[in-house]
Design a protein that fits this description.
Blueprint (H helix, E strand, L loop, with lengths): L3 E9 L4 H14 L3 E8 L7 E9 L14 E4 L19 E5 L4 H5 L8 E5 L1 H9 L5 H12 L4 H13 L4 H17 L1 E2 L1
Parallel strand pairs: 1-4, 4-5, 5-6
Antiparallel strand pairs: 1-3, 2-3, 6-7
Helix pairs in contact: 1-4, 1-5, 3-4, 3-6, 4-6, 5-6
């Protein structure tokens, strides 16, 4: 039976959710899977809430719409928890990964979700320390690889290195790979 994994990304414009959703889809394709990665914008401006979507399957994907009932939700900006129901449509068995420096109790108090699979990682801090900019998208790919088993860390690192090497200097590529590895190691259940 075909397994379709649907991932919904929540972020603000400029945080790289569109890029991460697309990179993940491309990495899945490189790994021999079928995949889609695309954004959904409200007002197209820096800082506005936006969503990205990724589907990954071992069979062709016939759906071409937003993801309403994701298996995984990734939140790149925890301030969205005050204004967006990021858990909408997420089943109790779903996985929620949030970029935050806050404690688990503070995050859980903002969620309209009773599911058990909540994971936290300070991807912005990792990005700042490793890449010099607090852009959380690539570290969140590492956190996703750890908790969802959607794609292996090795496949993800190989694809990111291949793609980034075509347009960035070696030190930028290495910084992104370190950030992905750190988030993979530092993501924790809450």
């Amino acid at each position: 039976m075909a397994r379709l994994t649907e991932i919904r990304w929540h972020a603000r414009g400029g945080q790289g959710a569109k890029t991460a959703a697309t990179f993940l889809a491309e990495a899945a394709i490189e790994d021999g899977k079928y995949s889609q990665g695309f954004p959904d914008y409200g007002p197209e401006r820096m800082g506005a809430p936006m969503r990205g979507f990724t589907r990954i399957s071992d069979q062709p994907i016939r759906l071409h719409c937003a993801i309403e009932n994701p298996d995984v939700v990734i939140v790149l900006d925890d301030t969205l928890l005050d204004s967006v129901n990021v858990c909408e449509g997420l089943p109790e068995s779903g996985v929620l990964i949030i970029n935050t420096k806050k404690e688990a109790a503070a995050i859980r108090s903002k969620l309209d979700w009773t599911g058990k699979k909540l994971f936290l990682v300070n991807a912005s801090e990792i990005a700042l320390e490793e890449m010099g900019r607090p852009i959380p998208n690539t570290p969140m790919l590492g956190a996703l690889a750890k908790v969802s088993q959607t794609l292996s860390l090795e496949v993800l690192l190989k694809d990111i290195e291949k793609k980034f090497s075509k347009k960035f200097k070696k030190q930028i590529v290495e910084a992104n790979l370190r950030a992905i590895k750190r988030a993979y190691e530092e993501v924790k259940p809450a």
